[in-house]
Design goal:
Elements: H1 2-9, H2 18-41, H3 44-52, H4 56-80, H5 89-105, H6 113-123, H7 127-152, H8 158-186, H9 201-223, H10 227-241, H11 253-262, H12 269-294
């Protein structure tokens, strides 16, 4: 018996599940296809001239809109956990920007783990409450993006799109609360503060609306698209950027989503893809630059330095 027990304790840990390797393989395939498509259609020689013809205030206004979306998320994070411990808004913004930088840079959306780690380190909560908070965050993001897609991308008259979006919103209002109660129960009823699936929804609405408006405005100016088409293109890029089979930084996938949603003629593919690449690079620069600057700790910072146990 002792020998058997010793043999079991010394046995190697099981390797990754086959589905893990399937997901990795599919992500690599998506990455290669997206990059090949991008290299074929992007007019890199025109990229610099497209970006240079925009006045500086356009870029500053777009950056301000993108950062305002992160500021709203920081307010949300602060309110999500204020029942555990008060944390300054700047420190919450630092956590939000760091999490966002990890999500956009790591493949397979592996950067989501940064939220769980940061919340456990800062507020000392368990994996269940942290995971439930992140799940609520992403469920709300999905709901907002779905409604924006119905409003902007469905090929129907504006009035019909509005009715369709209103019907979808009503359906979510009816179905999500019981589903959320079931998920919360499976998580052990994590915390009372997670009881509502809609808490913090304005932050998701504001973040995605500002992002679509800002990036759409840049796409309109760079590619010469009508503003409505540019907003649709910006939303298409964001929808492509949140799918799970994600290359590093979403490079190629974002540009493909912009092109598909823009509805531009084939002759304009070079201009649209080049503009999408410029907007994508700008958004990444804002996200990563803000995350780097946010690492500066202001006097009185309440961010904990120790690692979670």
């Amino acid at each position: 018996m002792k020998e058997a027990a010793a043999g079991e304790s010394g046995s190697p840990a099981p390797g990754p599940h086959p589905l893990h390797w399937l997901r990795v393989g599919l992500t690599v395939l998506v990455c290669l296809l997206a990059w090949a498509w991008l290299l074929r259609h992007a007019r890199l020689d025109a990229l610099q001239s497209q970006a240079a013809r925009l006045p500086a205030w356009n870029w500053f206004a777009a950056a301000a809109a993108l950062l305002a979306g992160h500021a709203l998320r920081a307010v949300r994070l602060q309110r999500d956990w204020r029942h555990v411990a008060p944390v300054r808004w700047w420190d919450c913004l630092r956590l939000v920007l760091t999490h966002n930088a990890m999500v956009v840079m790591l493949p397979l959306r592996a950067g989501e783990a940064a939220y769980l780690w940061a919340v456990r380190r800062q507020w000392g909560v368990g994996w269940g409450p942290a995971g439930l908070a992140l799940l609520r965050w992403r469920v709300q993001d999905a709901a907002v993006l779905a409604l924006l897609a119905l409003l902007l991308l469905v090929p129907l008259a504006p009035g019909l799109r509005l009715l369709l979006a209103a019907g979808a919103a009503l359906l979510m209002h009816l179905l999500l609360p019981p589903l959320w109660r079931w998920l919360s129960a499976r998580a052990g009823g994590a915390v009372h503060a997670m009881a509502s699936p809609w808490q913090g929804l304005p932050a998701s609405v504001g973040n995605w609306t500002l992002k679509v408006l800002a990036n759409g405005g840049l796409l309109a100016a760079l590619a010469g698209l009508p503003l409505a088409d540019a907003w649709r293109a910006a939303l298409g890029g964001e929808l492509a950027g949140v799918q799970p089979l994600q290359p590093p930084a979403g490079l190629g996938v974002y540009e493909g989503g912009v092109w598909l949603a823009a509805g531009a003629p084939p002759a304009a593919v070079g201009a649209v893809v080049s503009a999408a690449l410029a907007v994508h690079a700008f958004s990444l620069a804002v996200a990563l630059g803000a995350a780097a600057l946010a690492q500066l700790r202001l006097p009185g910072s309440t961010v904990r330095k120790e690692s979670p146990s």
